[in-house]
Amino acid sequence: MHASCNSFVELVKNRTSCRAYKTDPVPRGHIELMLEAARLAPSACNKQPWRFAVVTDQDTRLRLVNEAFIAGIPMKWAENAPVIIALGMERSLVTHKIAPKISGVEYPLLDLGIAGEHLVLQAEELGLGSCWIGWIKPKEVRQIVGWPRGIEPVSLITFGWPADGERKHRPRLSADEITKWI
Ligand SMILES: Cc1cc2nc3c(=O)[nH]c(=O)nc-3n(C[C@H](O)[C@H](O)[C@H](O)COP(=O)(O)O)c2cc1C
After folding, report:
1. Pocket around ligand 1: residues whose beta carbon is below 6 Å from it?
2. Does 166 score more than 80 pLDDT?
3. In CATH, which of 3.30.450.40, 3.30.70.100, 1.10.3720.10, 3.40.109.10 is domain 8-167?
4. DSSP-based three-state secondary structure for 16
5. Is the entire prediction scored with pTM above 0.90?
6. Which of 17, 94, 128, 150 stands 20 to 30 A from 171 (CA)?
7. Measured from the CA of 19, which atom of ligand 1 is nearest?
8. How far apart are CA 11 and CA 3, in angstroms?
9. What are the domain boundaries of the chain?
């Protein structure tokens, strides 16, 4: 567990999106542990549609921030994140085409969300900050990380050591507002 957390729910309560990083590098072993947590995530039909591109190379990170983020929201802070992981979705006939046609549920997107949050929570346990970046241009991400057309980028997540004072807890709806007990 994180130094200041004794339980899973404390870890979750502690996490906030981190938008200011120290420039210190993240040890490769930490990133590998995060990827292991993501690799073991559940997925519809166990299709494991997630693919990850781990970007630590500075030029490539800067290209992602400056060419693959949608303009309009100031996200220059991401230039300092020493690690950006791109989440890509490998298309499959069963879970992408057949199952959603019957049920209307986008299973691979759910799967990617679960795997991405495993990355985030493992990072949190290691004391690393993270921030999901969904405001992206998927085509540019694919081109920059060199994925083939069969892999659809769905999100980026920045990781790194949080700069001092970088903890701002945003409000949540109450349990009553979001839950119905039957
Ligand atoms: C799918 C997804 C996409 C997001 N995209 C962005 C983004 O493009 N830029 C950003 O600064 N934060 C982004 N966020 C972070 C949210 O703004 C943040 O999680 C939310 O405001 C709650 O704050 P907290 O994470 O600090 O608790 C995203 C979060 C998720 C889960």
Report:
1. 16-17, 75, 131-135, 155, 170
2. no
3. 3.40.109.10
4. coil
5. yes
6. 128
7. 11
8. 10
9. 8-167
